[in-house]
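Subject: sequence -> structure tokens, single chain

Hey, anyone have a minute? Need the predicted structure for the following. Not urgent.
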Amino acid sequence: MGNKKVIFFVAFFMIFGSCYLKASEFRKFELSARAATLGGAFAARADDVSAVFYNPSGLAFLPGIRLKTNIYYQQLKSIAEFPVVPQTYKSTTNQIRGSYFISLNIKERFGFGIGGFTPNSMNLKWPVDWIGNALSIHSKLNTFYIRPVVAVKISNHLAVGVGMDFIFSDVAWLYNKIFTFQEIGPGYQQPYNSDSKVSGKGLGFVAGVMVRISDSLRVGGRYQPKVKLDLEGSHNFSIFLGSEPPILANREVTSTLTMPQEFVLGLMYLPGKNLSLQIDLQWTGMSEIKQWEFNLDPQFYDDYEQYYGIRPDYARQGVDLNLRNTTRFMFGVEYILKNSIALRAGYAYQTSAANDQMLHPVFLGLDTNMLSLGIGYDGAMFSIWRTEERSGEFSFDVFFQYGFSSSRESALPELSAVYKTNPWSLGVGIGFNWGSLKKS
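Reply:
Had a minute. Here:
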């Protein structure tokens, strides 16, 4: 057990020491290489340690100590076309992201786990001189979760799991504006960049259930309620107009961010010994996200109004999003070959969170199709000292995921454009299992 304890604590500190990893749009990429190969349909399966995210109850059925790390490379290309001009602009972001999970099962009934991952995020970066720079040049949202969970196997067919989310978030928005202020001079105009950066943290909750109806049929589900985060930071202007009180002075800024509630229901069916099918349906309460806004510290506004006879109009920097709830359909198939090698494929379809009137370059959220292919290996590990002695199990997964959306025209009065997105990712997952802790 000495080596196992060392591995356990090294993995523990790896999770807590991991950096914030950027991602693109609201969860268009999966958090587990194995789940990614199945299109994300993993709520009823949840048969590796990434169950910490996909369905915590699955840990109750996983014996021993388990560790898994997933690393991905991602690219999201978003295109804005203006046929009348004509002009085409691209937002292309390239990032590396990852997730880390570890679990422990006691007496083959109680499962404990912890994970570090980024489930909700986006990153859109348009050219500085593009037509829509008055609405957005760069919008970024990043959340990092640390989730400890506990699962209990109530019977051989039923398990439940609950967990707590420690959420850390940072948000940024850069755009260009024209400042007009008659008190300085008739027709006075001054272009400037408005740059807000805020961060905050909060607590969330997750629950899962898994029912093994038979050896060939499983049902599982996960629920996460919404979490409101209070954020604070700084707002910087690219210019400073010297006056008293100062115009366009850098200020403290506050914001709020809602992590939407999610409900996922999944089914897994094994029609044959080596074949399995997974289907998940996810509902996300995106309508709870009403605004993308940053409120400047108002402490100086009274003096400002008294001095100039007018109250500044830049106290609130933001846009109304008024997003709508979304559904996500996920399907995956796996076929086991000889020598513990699995071939997997998946498909997912995500509905848009934005209507045509609010299709905004800050947040696109288009209808998106995702295709996945991957291969996995699950086999034995043997002692380096005694090659015939089995020391545990090892898994290795590789996946490629490609996404596309149909072109969609925005009816936003300030910026009428045609948008489409093309995300793709490539990644690996490496896992270890050190068997059951149950004494014989």
